[in-house]
Each structure stands twice: as C-alpha cells, then as structure tokens.
Amino acid sequence: MKITIVGGGPGGLYFSILMKRQDPSHDVTVYERNPEGSTYGWGVTYWAGLLDKLRAGDPESAEAIAAASVTWTDGVAIVRDERTVHRGDAGFGIGRRRMLALLADRARELGVRVEYEHSVSGPDAPELADADLVVAADGVNSALREAHADRFGTEVTSGRNHYVWLGTTKVFDSFSFAFKETEHGWIWCYAYGFSGEQSTCVVECGPETWSGLGLDRLNEADSLNLLEKLFSDLLDGEPLIGREQHGDGAPAQWLHFRTLTNRVWHHGRLALLGDAAHTTHYSIGAGTTLALEDALALAAALRDPSVPVPTALAAYGRRRRSELVSAQSAARYSAQWYENLPRYMRLEPAQMFALLGQRHSPLLPHVPPQLYYRLDRAAGQLEALRRLKRWLGPRVARAVHRG
C-alpha cells in the first residue's frame, strides 16, 4: 500500500514503524509541518504496561524509549505547607522531543520518508492524491478531520479551569503535587521528571483564581515569577521555564482543556489517530499512551491484505472506541474532581491525597468526601464492601452519563 501519514507526533511515527515492519514493501511517508526537533510540551508519562505492548510491536524502538526514560514510584503532595507521601506503581517519564527523535530515527531506518516543515493543506492536497490510506495524526485541530467534521460526528467540550504547561530545572524523583490556597482561591501544580536535567510542571486553577491573581494580564516572565513564589517549596528555588518561542513581553500560554470525541473514526480511506480522534484530560497522563495504542490497533486491523481498507478502518474504530470507554470515564471524573477542588480541601492532607487517588471514581462526586474516605478505608479491609463498590460504581457512571 501507499500510506500517507499527516502529523509526526508519537502516534503517527509509531504507526509508520509498525506498517513497515508488517510489510517492508509498503510505501510510507510522514508529513510534519514543524521543523525537526521542535515540539510543544516538555515530558510525557507512561506506565509499565505500555512498554510491554511496544516491545511486542517493535522491540528496537521500545528498548530505546525505555533506556531514555526516568522512573518513579512515590507520589508526593504538598497541601498548604504539609507534605504527604504515598507509595504507588512505577511510572515513567521521557522528554517528548527525545521520544520523537527516537521514533523518527527508527522509522527512517526501516525506510519511512519523514518530511519536516511540510504542511498538508487539506483532503484535496496533492500529497494525498494517490494514497491507498491516509492517516490524520495531526492533533486536536486536525485539518483533515475538520474538512469532514459532519461525517466524523466531531464534538468538543471545553473545561472550566485554566492550565499552562511549563518546564523546570528542578528534577523530581516522584510524581509531585502542590496545592496552594490564595486569597483568590486554590491553585495547584502537577510535576514529574522526564530526564536528569528537567521536569514538567502543569499549573492549573479555576477562573476566579486566574483573574484574581492577575494571570489573565501578566506577561509570561511576570507569570513565571509569581508561580515560582507560590510553589517555592515544591521547586526548591529552581526556576520555571516557559515555551521557548516566546519573546520578551509575550503572554503565557494559558489554555482550557478541550475534550474531543468522534462518532466514527474513518471516512473512506481516511482514518483518525491520537488527538485527532480523541482527547482525555491531561490529569490522567494517558494522551501519548492512547495514541500509541491507536497505532497498534490500526496496524493490527490492516494486517490482512485481503480485507478492504474501509472495512479494516471500521473495525479499528469500533475496537478503539470500545477500549477507550474506561479511560474517557476516568478522565472525565478526574477533570471534574479538580474543577470541584474546594470540596475536598477541608480534609486532612493525607485524606485529601487519598481521595486524589480515587478521583476517577464515579461514586466520589455523590458521596460526602469524609464519608467516602471512611468507606474506602473500610472497603480495603472488608471484601463485601469491595464487591459493593465495584458493583455500584459502573451503575452510577452509566446513570450520570445518560443524564
């Protein structure tokens, strides 16, 4: 097949690798509009289960990613000025730029053409004219998807809170949170290491806090200075770093998270992948993982050359939409937990951090936090309560979703 992939993010590059491994005679080209080595974001997170899947798909790139990653097991939260530590499963971080370089090198090694600084204008672009398969891996603002938005059934909802992606030279050896109360409300930070030199910091707050602190008016330099003071105990005096392309006086890139879904994931020979198909709130740390899993599923659907491409694409979409239900539910409840943060901040810090770990639960919004904490502790000791919690949670989720 002749395969054209629009978008050189992790999902698009990994799909190109998988297809070349399945059949080296495939003619595969990746078009990326940005220059090589330029990328937004800082580091990405993933968990051990993803590495097992990547090793099955392409052991060489999986081992390169594992070797370039850092790991942690603890979760640390600073609530007001009190520090709490929780043990957890091993997590991994890797610089987004480093991951893209590793995947691009592996793709080229297998014979994929990776064309940087090459925009594809839309579904009628000459680059797509004779392709047997076109993969839209061009992100949440996908031009290829938007050209057929009615066919895909695209829906976008915007979150209430403001957030900004930043870096720091403070190297975290645990996944860390800090929650700070100001006279204008709460503001908080998620932080995790992705190399031996830098970490990612995501700062979030509600609109009242954002405007009350003047973050709607400050330029990036002044915003970073304010945030460094607010989170000084988390950062240990290390600076925050904004996006590199900003000049002096430029505003900070505060955003609202947009949750995107599509009713179907293909139209003719065009398939959606990664953020072009779906987004899940960053607080569950699954965006890159889900894009790579999309690539694995799409390659699997296309493995049998006797199956027509539209039939394979339809099967891919059905499979992934089904597999994503739990992640999308978890992301929805996680985002709501943060949007209703004051509800949980009257708890003792250790109890609040325990409920932070339970934020994906469909029961939590409907049970008083103190009562939920006590029930959860009891459920950890009584099998009957554990069974009731497992039985009741999905039913509440379905009822709320229908409502």
Write a structural description.
The chain has 403 residues and is an alpha/beta fold. The protein has 15 helices and 16 strands. The protein has helices spanning 10-22, 48-57, 59-67, 96-109, 143-146, 149-152, 207-212, 220-230, 232-235, 287-301, 309-323, 325-339, 349-356, 369-379, 383-402, and strands spanning 2-6, 27-32, 43-47, 70-79, 82-95, 113-116, 133-136, 154-158, 162-168, 175-182, 185-193, 199-205, 240-241, 258-262, 266-267, 270-272. The strands form 3 sheets. The chain has an 8-stranded mixed beta sheet. The protein has a 6-stranded mixed beta sheet with strand order 6-2-1-7-16-15. Strand 15 (266-267) and strand 16 (270-272) form a beta hairpin. Helix 2 (48-57) runs antiparallel to helix 3, helix 3 (59-67) runs antiparallel to helix 4 and helix 10 packs antiparallel against helix 11 (309-323). The radius of gyration is 22 Å and the shape is globular. It starts with a strand and ends with a helix. The model is unreliable at 395-403 (pLDDT under 50).
